Amino acid sequence: MEVVAGVDIGSSAARAIAVDRAGRVISASRAVYEPVDLPVGEVDPAIWLAGLSDAFRRLECGAPIALGIGGQSPTTVADTGEMALTFRHPVGAGHDASGQHLAHAALLSERYGPQARPRLMWDYLISKLGGASGFQSVWPGTEGIPGFGDPVPVGSHAGVTSGEYGLPPGMALAPGENDASMTAWAAAIDAAGRGFDPGGKTGGLGAAIDVGGGPAPEYGLPGHVPGVYIVGGPVASHGAIMDWWAGITGRGIPDLLEEAASVDPGSDGVMVLPFLEGERAPRWRQELRAEILGIGLDTGVGAITRAILEATAYGLAHIARGLAEQGVELHRVVCCGGPSRSPLWTSIKASVLGVPFDVPACREMAAYGAALTAGASVGWWPRPGEGAPGDWPTPPVTTFEPDPGAAAFYRKELEMFIALGDEAEARLETGTILWRSR
Fold first, then answer.
1. pLDDT for 315 beyond 80
2. Which of 1, 9, 13, 83 suits a disulfide with 71, CB 3.0-4.6 Å?
3. pTM
4. Overall number of domains in the chain
5. Edge-to-edge strands of the sheet including 4-9?
């Protein structure tokens, strides 16, 4: 049985899957990176190569005929391998993805000289594995970034593996895209009203709109089907805030989720602003910081945990509200990544947003999208932008419906969440802030 593989290079782990031509997941694996003590937003690219290799070797399948790679973005790598800068780096913060890449590139050149040419992360990894160099993968309908190489379409054949880093030789290599685009492709976000929540440490909300032959939206990204665009945006802290809370409490996330399930909607009056690293959409204020409000002597760990889960859902709903004000409808959402493994968390999101949430049987949808990239490179499926809905496989889903009673309650709580966020922003404007950066 022939299979193709996809690897998603995340912020803390590499995730790999192998799928057959019908799109069935044959094997899945993940490899957590070894911790490295570097400033925020800086990464040694060697850990990605090691993680990719480790995750690939853990796949239980025959040798794939092709490998696609995608991952976190905006991330820029010096092609000499000294350093990579991720979206968490302060340089370029507040710019769009292209602006961040260019700011990263300028800093890398300043540090390591003009020979440290900038590359997109997946393009760099492909060249290290034996593929072509000097190219940059470009999603359909977007333009290449100056100085990052000659543009080629996502899903192109970009050479073959050399046999280094523990990968078999002769395997076709295909460049992917950022994890959000890979997830939207894998989740079949190909018609107006369909949305996706990629989960992960950051998270966010994207919704499909159909512009047909009309003009592209100013802030939208092209989908994998011509005429469909994705609008919305990322948040700054989604799964990351649960990781932080687990570290603070010294308890595992499954234990925390179990305790949160015993708390009613509203979290016993506790509300959280989940701005651990500022907020991206819809506020775009990196200076914001998280707050926990409404705690008392009788507040338990379960109440704060549930408030954190509700806060991440409110953040998505805040984006959805802005989209609705622009006429963008949302009928259902595909929920992916680590947070989708919690039925409680997913149910809360469904009730807060008031729409069904579908959880794919494959939890690593960014890696699934990378596998679609691999399949496209060997002619199994069209490349993104060259097909129609239904031309690509997608995993089966389990649906979580919103609870009507909880949904009505959460509509009122969302107003409080947004108002508290507005107050936090106002304190930034007046200089009356509750914390000081180092």
1. yes
2. 9
3. 0.84
4. 1
5. 25-32, 13-19, 4-9, 66-71, 172-178
